[in-house]
Amino acid sequence: MEIQQLYFVIADISGYTKFVTLHRQSLLHAEKIVGNLLEAVISEAKAPLQIHELLGDAVTMYAPVDPSQSITEQIYAQMQKMHAAFNGTESDHISECSLCACEACNNIDKLKLKIIAHVGEAAFTKVGGMKKISGENVILTHRWLKNSIPSREYFLLTEEFVSTLDEKLRAGLLRHKENLEGLGARTAFYRNLNTSPEASKPSFISKLKKNTELNLHCVIRMFGKPKREFRNLPD
Q1: Which residues partner with 180 through β-bridges?
Q2: pTM value?
Q3: Distance CA 7, CA 43 (A)
Q4: For 146-163, how does the pLDDT look when each residue is reduced to its tens digit (9 = 90+)?
Q5: In sequence order, what DSSP letters do the residues of 140-175 get, joined into one string?
Q6: H helices of 44-96, where?
Q7: Which domains does the chain have, with CATH numbers?
């Protein structure tokens, strides 16, 4: 077992449970959509961040603390890119699947991304040949996923993480206190990313007026191109 100082980052999709339980017929679409959203987030996780675990609706990451340089700003910049990639992929799905009548495709806009960031000591162990990080700081990071912040789309930064953050990036952060299960009262800071009102969803009738090419692209995106060729269908 090895003890190290680590940065911990968890990117979690808000609304996942309700989204994947909307209807059995929507499950395939729901899981594919969530998978694409997580892939978009993971694609922005560059060094020094390393992927640790994929937990259905969340991905956990870590980065070793380097005493010779501050990498907090790099991690924060990657968090911003993850959020932008998530929103971009979500927008693509909303546009491409606008004619699909399933409940998953009609509720994509309910999915939001929250990212938790912390820094502290943790233990490296090997379980079944796989590297595992554990300890109170790992538990603390996961505990912060359940909180009373009045938003479902935000960055939550613990006091320890904020203490290593550049002053200009601290501007606009909101202080938040929470009684975490088993850990007591803790303080963190958050940046609300859901600053604009959600756009009203178009009616089903208005969706039918859109180019049917969008729905075809949705099917192709979900399942790939059909093996059989059809005439007069857009590529």
Answers
A1: 184
A2: 0.82
A3: 19
A4: 999 999 999 999 999 999
A5: HHHHTTS---S-SSEEEEEHHHHTTS-HHHHTT-EE
A6: 72-96
A7: 2-197+211-223 (3.30.70.1230)
